[in-house]
Amino acid sequence: MPDYTRMANAIRILAVDSILNAGDGHPGTPLGAADIVTTLYTRHMKFDAADPTWPDRDRFIQSNGHGSMLIYAANHLSGFAKLSIEELKRFRQLNSHCPGHPEYDPEAGIETTTGPLGQGIANAVGMAVAEEKLRAMFGPEICNHYTYALVGDGCLMEGIAQEVVELAGHLKLGHLVFLFDSNHITDDGETYQAISEDQAARFRVAGWHTVECGGHDPDSIDAAIRLAKADPRPSFVICHTEIGHGVPRIANTRSAHGGKLVPEDADEARALLEWEHAPFVIPEDVLKPWREAGRRGNASRVAWQKRLEAADPERKAEFERLVLGKLPEGYEAVLADRKAAYAEARPTQPGVATSGEILDALSDAIPELVSGAPDLEAATRHKRRLEAFTAENRNGRYLHYGVREFAMGSMMNGMAAHRGVIPFGITFLVFSDYERHAIRMAALMGLPVIFGFSHDSIGIGRNGPTHQPVEYLASLRAIPNLTVFRPADAVEAVECWELALANRTGPSAMVYSRQPIPAVRAEAGAENACALGAYVLAAASGKRRATLFATGSEVQIALAARETLEAQGVPTAVVSVPCWERFEQQEPAYRAEVIGRGTARVAVEAAVGLGWERFIGEDGSFIGMSTFGASAPEDELFEHFGITPEAVVGSVLRALDTGSTATAELAG
Amino acid sequence: MPDYTRMANAIRILAVDSILNAGDGHPGTPLGAADIVTTLYTRHMKFDAADPTWPDRDRFIQSNGHGSMLIYAANHLSGFAKLSIEELKRFRQLNSHCPGHPEYDPEAGIETTTGPLGQGIANAVGMAVAEEKLRAMFGPEICNHYTYALVGDGCLMEGIAQEVVELAGHLKLGHLVFLFDSNHITDDGETYQAISEDQAARFRVAGWHTVECGGHDPDSIDAAIRLAKADPRPSFVICHTEIGHGVPRIANTRSAHGGKLVPEDADEARALLEWEHAPFVIPEDVLKPWREAGRRGNASRVAWQKRLEAADPERKAEFERLVLGKLPEGYEAVLADRKAAYAEARPTQPGVATSGEILDALSDAIPELVSGAPDLEAATRHKRRLEAFTAENRNGRYLHYGVREFAMGSMMNGMAAHRGVIPFGITFLVFSDYERHAIRMAALMGLPVIFGFSHDSIGIGRNGPTHQPVEYLASLRAIPNLTVFRPADAVEAVECWELALANRTGPSAMVYSRQPIPAVRAEAGAENACALGAYVLAAASGKRRATLFATGSEVQIALAARETLEAQGVPTAVVSVPCWERFEQQEPAYRAEVIGRGTARVAVEAAVGLGWERFIGEDGSFIGMSTFGASAPEDELFEHFGITPEAVVGSVLRALDTGSTATAELAG
């Protein structure tokens, strides 16, 4: 039997040396949880470091990502090629595979980006859902693995933790195991300052199996994990540990969390742990069992591969398509049909109703599409004929998240990172704030999650300012690598869906009106006009003197204003701007042509104007919001806030009169 | 004894008629929880509708704000003058005191804005903290009241609920009572779809007292509230109710949540409830006991007023100052001293360290200042010599929130709405997303909460992109009525604090660097330069040819670039822009002078460029971020992302060469 404690000490020493080498880092977790991870990797985890992305591998998420040297050291020791000893020496250096916090890199055994607390375990719950889903679709011979997440006190205090703990218990995700690094210390010091709950009791109330173990005793940890795997409920394994274990100066103190190490700490750790080797030198007696652990899933993988080869070819091909993230044949035709139907029917209907119809059609075409709306099934119209995914029915494709937006966002990230399902989740735009950090994480990781948002402006009317987004379009547009779509009608909505599905390197936000909006697109051929981000929807009848920019429900206002202006002899173009990010990517010449410098430029959007100057320039006018909304019928609100064709016309005429639209009061 | 059920039915009928009159609304809660609120108002709540803002009143928060007709009807019936029967008829109309969701209006008995679920109860927990704090400061004869919050299934599913439930239990907030309208129905239908927890057990684990009662039985509710008040722990009163009680068609169905009512519903309710009166007519036998309930706190209030009058005059004056929200004499002098000291010493230090020093000084000068940092006490340097507010020590002024940012934000809103304390809370800027919706609510309510944020850019270095804000300045600037400050040095930091404290009609965000930043202000007289929002920090030596805009840690970069440009014969001004919102409020002439059209304009900020066009125009250059950051030492990152004096100089020279800075690639 290998000396597990000595193997764990290899993690400890690597962590201490790497942190000293980098200048800073968080030593407490790698020191405290080294035994947990060593036991997990050597005696339970089904993985093969030689094939890190094998689809049926067990997933391990270090949710307390600040202690990143733990996973880097463990993955180096177990033989992930990307995490060579040279990379460990480059911990926290530019372009290292060992950045300050773990960053999504399945090739390196990093299943998700962690650091912002609570989200790693939420991702894990999403992964466990994806695993159940694929198991239901393909059978346990193709998909049958566990998701393990290491979690600290900090993660458990975040509200999102409760959201996903409740959901995991409710959904009886039996292949999910949380390993709680319970050391009673956070950055502020002893946890009694901020928490007095019995965590085991809390998890039991939520329907989890719980078990406790000595977190520095490999056999005790092993026994607890065995019990966890055997139980049909999700399991919460409480590992009693000492933070900073192995470095006497900081052990069991708050300094261990993120405090600086000094060279003497390494000496004292070496003395205490009887480790005689130089920094970054791992003796063969330790490396060998670690490398064996790194291949412990090899036999399973080979057997799995055989089962997959032996499977029905269609089933095999379908599984491979899913895990590669390829869309099925035929989905484009479904979208093309929808587009043609909308172009023909020219419906006036709520943007969110259109989105629901598109999702209906896509759900038939894309079996891996999984959707949900946190307690807004009816309002967002996105459940329809989908069955619910429940503890009893893993074939369901609609998740009842409950009123838990952040859980939804972060679970979707976990599903996308797991691969095999395409998550879509929709809520009111005003609640995107609740899941906002999950959107950021999807963008940072480059995950193809589609975040839907309805009820996108004062157009919701009487529910009032608490439910009326004003600042949200700007704040979503501010997130790098997030593509924000706000379609103006049903045809644009189909085009935007097509672009969102094609976007495999980052998330998309789909923003819809609640109120009915008319068809605005006259032409709807094979070309995807929205791909340009902004395009001339209605050209000026002569030499263009005015350019009106609008998105979503305000495009109709721009079109109405154009009619008036044209009637008054002002050749006016209307530019629909469904997607700023895509427009930024176009050639300068195209952008210049669309933007029309030298014309009177007015933008209209029922939101704050932040950023619109890039379309209208310093002398243009913005017609929109500069305050929060109000509770009143929606038509009255557009009048009240002056978002009307008359206001647009007035701005243009003043601009042409004075040579500039001088009142460019951009708000927000 | 009044007929409590008939009194409750008055709420039901008013709600049904008002919702029918408005065209929509959420009937389920007013119908289902009418008995709870009637019992609370008539037999427990200490309030006087004739003096709605009496400081020692009990607070009632309807956290499930969608059912707003409940609180409007109850407050109308109990005699709040602002909520006349005419206002109820204007439910959901423009400028009504009865908007779709309850909006903060203490004169109308609306203690906080609710609707976004989970935050009402979080506000309540903040109010209970403020009550404990004031009781400790002034004694129970001056402050001694309860906070009651009505809460539904939806609120309890939100993560923030768990955060504040844990904290309230931990802090033993005995004057806090949650009344759970437990009807097992949400918008999606029966709650079993999304939750299977025993809520009572969950609260007990968190240290709460729990008790159950029949939610349509006034005596049962009364008995439960009595037990709740008698218990030294916060209490969770589970009231078993039927949603939509009284309207047969929708009772106990999801349609009750927010579905449309039809006129027949009113007829059927009248028949069932034996209510014979026309819409908006309340018979005297019902109105009289309701109006008596509305004055049931009158005797207490008169007695309280006498105690206050009899109190030590200084203590009385101090209490009155606090509840009026007036700052104490002398605080300006403390700030002036700090400013003079910084101007003299010209320290190079982290922005967040400066903020900690300022808070230290202010904490001595402003006894009602209550601060906290969610498990970032050391990193944000804001605890220092303050004692912790704990279950045992209500004199403490530092709240250990634990890793619960959203709880902090929303509790601060509750404290500010309660009045008597000035809340300040700080976390890393990247975690402002977690509390973002609380910031929005503070802005919407116009509450003077000060939200602190440190670690404000890639300047944090090695912790990497998960902890490096990039999109946050833009997304905070997008929020109406939020004033965002990003000071460039210690002198500016003092000035910004002065402005934030003076801002009584909305929240302020204070954004600080983690890395040391040098002093940039040469002059620091009595005038507050930051009050202008943007000002010429370093004038051009001759006729200005270039204008450099910067904020925070990037001002030093602009100054360095200016030196080079001046040396090369390009007269260059540096404009420091600590606060966009204040700059927008300046006179056009001043703004034009600062902005310097016609000069080569470059803005530099280590963040996305969204919105900077309003300073630099379409032809200006922005030097900043267009992607997420990276993990590396901070100096390397500024080089790596090209945020350097050299880049600024290059942009200016190219612009002067070509007549425009053509590469205005604004990202984000």
TrEMBL record, chains A, B:
Record Gene3D superfamilies: 3.40.50.920, 3.40.50.970
Catalytic activity: D-sedoheptulose 7-phosphate + D-glyceraldehyde 3-phosphate = aldehydo-D-ribose 5-phosphate + D-xylulose 5-phosphate
Binding site for thiamine diphosphate: 66, 115-117, 154, 183, 257, 431
Note describing how the cofactor binds: Binds 1 Mg(2+) ion per subunit. Can also utilize other divalent metal cations, such as Ca(2+), Mn(2+) and Co(2+).
Class of enzymatic activity (EC top level): transferase
A GO biological-process term: pentose-phosphate shunt
SMART domains reported in the protein's UniProt record: Transket_pyr
Keywords recorded for this protein, A-Z: Magnesium, Metal-binding, Thiamine pyrophosphate, Transferase
A UniProt-annotated Pfam family: Transketolase_C_1
Binding site for Mg(2+): 153, 183, 185
InterPro entries: THDP-binding, Transketo_C/PFOR_II, Transketolase-like_C_2, Transketolase-like_Pyr-bd, Transketolase_bac-like, Transketolase_fam, Transketolase_N
Active-site residues annotated for this sequence: 405
GO MF terms, alphabetically ordered: metal ion binding; transketolase activity
Site location (Important for catalytic activity): 26, 257
Binding positions for substrate per the UniProt entry: 26, 257, 455, 467, 514
GO cellular component: cytosol
Enzyme nomenclature, EC number: 2.2.1.1
Reported cofactor(s): Mg(2+); thiamine diphosphate
Domain Transketolase-like pyrimidine-binding: 349-520
Family statement: Belongs to the transketolase family.
Assembly notes: Homodimer.
Protein name: Transketolase
